[in-house]
UniProtKB/TrEMBL annotation:
The lineage of its organism: Bacteria, Pseudomonadati, Pseudomonadota, Alphaproteobacteria, Sphingomonadales. Belongs to the universal ribosomal protein uL30 family. SUPFAM superfamilies: Ribosomal protein L30p/L7e. Keywords: Ribonucleoprotein, Ribosomal protein. GO terms for cellular component: ribosome. It holds the Pfam family Ribosomal_L30. CDD domains: Ribosomal_L30. It comes from the Bacteria. Part of the 50S ribosomal subunit. This is Large ribosomal subunit protein uL30. NCBIfam families: rpmD_bact (TIGR01308). It comes from Sphingobium xenophagum. InterPro entries: Ribo_uL30_ferredoxin-like_sf, Ribosomal_uL30_bac-type, Ribosomal_uL30_ferredoxin-like. The gene is rpmD. Residues 4-54 form the Large ribosomal subunit protein uL30-like ferredoxin-like fold domain.
């Protein structure tokens, strides 16, 4: 299955709790961390909820 790389570009400080939970669910939580995940609808939906905090690096 196809994969995408996601990089955290925004801090979770002073963000709502649900946004922090989404970051943790993606495997992020610290600035500039990059994770590689399967390209699924669930992952794409999480990215769309956090466009100000994550960036698709590759995929």
């Amino acid at each position: 299955m196809a994969t995408i790389k996601i990089k955290q570009i925004g801090s979770p400080i002073r963000r709502p709790a649900d946004q922090k939970k989404i970051l943790i669910g993606l495997g992020l939580g610290k600035m500039h961390r990059v994770v590689e995940l399967e390209d699924t609808a669930e992952v794409r939906g999480a990215i769309k909820k956090l466009p100000h905090m994550v960036q698709v690096v590759e995929g």
